[in-house]
Amino acid sequence: MKSTIVLFFILIVMISTSQELTYSRKMLTPMMINPGMTGADVDIRASIHHRNQWSSVVQPYQSSHFSFDSRLSRNLRRNEAFLSAGALFFNDRAGSARLNTNKGQLFLAGNVSTSSNSRLSLGITGGFGQRSIDQSQLSWGNQYDGSYDPTINSNEDIYVSQFSYFDVGSGLVWSYGEDSRYIGANDEFRFKIGYSIYHLGLQKNSFRIESGYSTGLRQVVFSTAEIGIGQTHLTIIPEIYFSRQQKFNEIIIGSSFRYLLQEGSKVTGFIKEMAITPSVSYRIGDALITAMDIQYAQYTFGLGYDINTSSLSQASRGRGAIEFHFRFQMPNPFAWKARARI
């Protein structure tokens, strides 16, 4: 089974050869890429993520979010079905015109076992958002009469400074896992693949009073795995992400490499586990994404940096975006490595 899934990764890359501003480190914001990921692998998880983009070119684009998700049942048997729920709050500020988006979403997912080693998760999400713009900060070509004159009518069709919208989405995730043979063997194997769809016909996206324009459907396919290298402290975590929205595509291919620096005490718990996880990915046609995470017991601190490789690099001099991440989760992610919590 393991060799079949590894070959599947190669196939996805061959086949895959946004319009929305999203984070580069997709797997650190799981509910944003698939509602089926809500509370799937944790009892409790809370995370904060921030991105600062293009500060060397224009007014920085800044995105921040806080999320929380949890299983709704505890002490489940291995193959027992369960529900999980979560919430996410998102803010995005873009450009000198201060295009501002605030959004809150609720998530609900159902999880059922399909075998002793696999599980299927179906999630739904619904949310409410508000978008605003400072029209006084906009300037147009017809407002230049030898020099810029903001009192000249721009004749642009912008009638409102803010609007609100509803949004819904859904996602399906299949997970597979094999246990380590014994504690410390580090030969566990886990795999996930998912499909999700967002903006199901409800999201308005226009500052015009009478406009039928809505954001196009966004479809996402992702796959990731955790491959423990037996008798070592190294785990390889390849990732593939593909998103399509109208004519805009985003493809990210990469891998993380988690290395256990310190094993925790098994009896007293006084010594906590610690690991580092460097990673490198490539957003095709746009940026090289580098990152480093430090994991200490239930806590993860992360820093990522995008090196711009597109035509914009002539203006940005390669400087793309920086991302910060903090996560707390229970149970301790190191404590369940010996049993595959698929």
What does this molecule look like?
7% of the residues lie in helices and 51% in strands. The chain has 3 helices and 14 strands. The protein has helices at residues 2-16, 30-33, 313-316; strands at 44-53, 61-71, 82-94, 99-115, 118-132, 162-178, 189-198, 218-228, 234-245, 248-262, 274-283, 287-296, 299-308, 319-330. The protein has a 14-stranded antiparallel β-barrel with strand order 1-2-3-4-5-6-7-8-9-10-11-12-13-14. A hairpin with a 2-residue loop joins β9 and β10 (248-262). The longest helix is centred in the N-terminal third of the chain and has 15 residues, at 2-16. The model is unreliable at 5-19 (pLDDT under 50).
Please, how many domains? 1
Per DSSP E runs of 2 or more residues, the count of β-strands stands at 14
Distance between the termini: 15 Å
Strand order of the largest sheet: 1-2-3-4-5-6-7-8-9-10-11-12-13-14
CATH topology, which one? Porin
Counted by DSSP, the helix tally is 3
Low-confidence stretches: 5-19
CATH architecture: Beta Barrel
The largest β sheet comes out as: 14 strands, antiparallel, barrel
Q: Looking at this structure, what is the CATH superfamily? A: monomeric porin ompg
Order of helix and strand elements from N to C terminus? HHEEEEEEEEEEEEEHE
Shape: globular
In terms of DSSP E residues, the strand content is: over 45%
Radius of gyration, in angstroms, nearest whole number: 22 Å
What percentage of residues falls in helices of 4 or more residues? under 10%
Quick check: average pLDDT?
A: 81
CATH class: Mainly Beta
Helix-strand makeup class: mainly beta
